[in-house]
Amino acid sequence: MLLFCVHAAPSIPRPRVNARHNRIGPLYHKGWYHLFYQWNPDSAVWGNITWGHAVSRDLLHWLHLPLAMVPDHPYDANGVWSGSATRLPDGRIVMLYTGSTAESSAQVQNLAEPADASDPLLREWVKSDANPVLVPPPGIGPTDFRDPTTAWRTPGNDTPAWRVAIGSKDRDHAGLALVYRTEDFVRYDPAPALMHAVPGTGMWECVDFYPVAAGSGAAADSGDGLETSAAPGPGVKHVLKASLDDDKHDYYAIGTYDPATDTWTPDSAEDDVGIGLRYDYGKYYASKTFYDPVLRRRVLWGWVGETDSERADILKGWASVQSIPRTVLLDTKTGSNLLQWPVVEVENLRMSGKSFDGVALDRGSVVPLDVGKATQLDIEAVFEVDASDAAAVTEADVTFNCSTSAGAAGRGLLGPFGLLVLADDDLSEQTAVYFYLLKGTDGSLQTFFCQDELRASKANDLVKRVYGSLVPVLDGENLSVRILVDHSIVESFAQGGRTCITSRVYPTRAIYDSARVFLFNNATHAHVKAKSVKIWQLNSAYIRPYPATTTSL
Ligand code: DQQ
Question: Domains plus CATH for the chain?
Answer without folding.
Answer: 17-134 (2.115.10.20), 350-538 (2.60.120.560)
